[in-house]
Amino acid sequence: MQRIKLKEDFFTQLQKVIAADRLLLDEPMSKHTTFRIGGPADYLILPASAREVSAVLVIAREHGLPVTILGNGSNVLVLDKGIRGLVLKFDATMGRISHTGTTVKAGAGASLGDVSRYAAAHGLTGLEFAVGIPGSIGGAVFMNAGAYDGEIGCFVAAVTAVCPDGKLKRFSHADIRFGYRDSAFQHNRCIICEVELTLAAGDDDAIGMKMTDYTTRREAKQPIEMPSAGSTFKRPPGHYAGTLIEQAGLKGFKIGGAQVSGKHAGFIVNAGGATATDVLSLIKEVQRQVHERFGVRLQPEVRIFGEE
Ligand SMILES: Cc1cc2nc3c(=O)[nH]c(=O)nc-3n(C[C@H](O)[C@H](O)[C@H](O)COP(=O)(O)OP(=O)(O)OC[C@H]3O[C@@H](n4cnc5c(N)ncnc54)[C@H](O)[C@@H]3O)c2cc1C
What we know:
The structure is a single chain. By secondary structure, this protein is of the alpha+beta class. It folds into three domains: about 10-90, Uridine Diphospho-n-acetylenolpyruvylglucosamine Reductase, domain 2 (2-Layer Sandwich), CATH 3.30.43; about 95-205, Uridine Diphospho-n-acetylenolpyruvylglucosamine Reductase, domain 3, CATH 3.30.465.10; about 220-305, UDP-N-acetylenolpyruvoylglucosamine reductase, C-terminal domain (Uridine Diphospho-n-acetylenolpyruvylglucosamine Reductase, domain 1, Alpha-Beta Complex). The protein has helices spanning about 10-15, 50-60, 110-120, 135-145, 175, 185-190, 205-220, 240-245, 275-295; strands at about 25-30, 40-45, 65-70, 75-80, 85-90, 95-100, 105, 125, 145, 150, 155-160, 170, 190-200, 200, 230, 255, 260, 265-270, 305.
């Protein structure tokens, strides 16, 4: 693995836009993914504003560098040789949350749990389902994350994003074309910077009870104590991926350090020292056996970045 060679002024240009403590070189991605797996990114940048995102995109384009976007890294598998070019990671640096009436605005890096708790603290209902999903609000919109009785797309009124030409664009709910674990952002390469949500006034006790119920159910059923990227596969029409995997006898099945969780077969966990290669091999083996047994082709929900 070799870092992409750059024209001399590239770094000077980046330093003019991004503060030194938010510009990391050869940063291990295992520190930035909930799987705790992944080789180094050449350059990891923590943007603080849409203006910075736009400026970085312009510099990257000028130097022909690929740009990868990361939120909390809770739905990604980064391969063992890492990511060439720039990674823009959205975290609390760009995670301001505010509200006016029933409209909540959040920077893309705000944690979904924090947005859910912020809404609850202001008597707003709708986001209770999201309290235990460990992503950023930007990643949640990109994925149209959902659980129990809700999906983030149902509450998104608008999104402000930086598009590949470096320009800021406002997307309405209709523009985003939410589908099952799908949104326009998976197809248009625009980078989500701010999300506007429409919630409803609710009853504090009812909101609190729902959040406690969902948290208890998650703790009982999911291997949240182990590093993972959540559900490995999308729900195939008419089935549950976890049930098919369990019925194929694969609960607890292991390749290297990657294991089909013994608690919930829909999750692949890092049982200790797993490499991305272990996880990929396990994904392929699970797909093969489930297809052989039930004729169902499981599609990964987890997104895969980097070099093998
Ligand atoms: C224990 C556990 C439980 C989970 N439970 C659920 C669940 O119940 N429901 C569910 O839907 N998911 C669940 N997940 C998966 C994951 O948390 C969600 O998909 C989450 O929305 C991903 O957000 P993220 O910020 O971590 O995104 P990342 O994993 O960092 O990125 C995911 C994708 O979004 C893109 N992306 C991220 N931020 C932006 C942005 N600002 N602009 C453009 N693109 C962006 C990335 O490029 C990548 O393709 C779970 C994961 C774990 C580990």
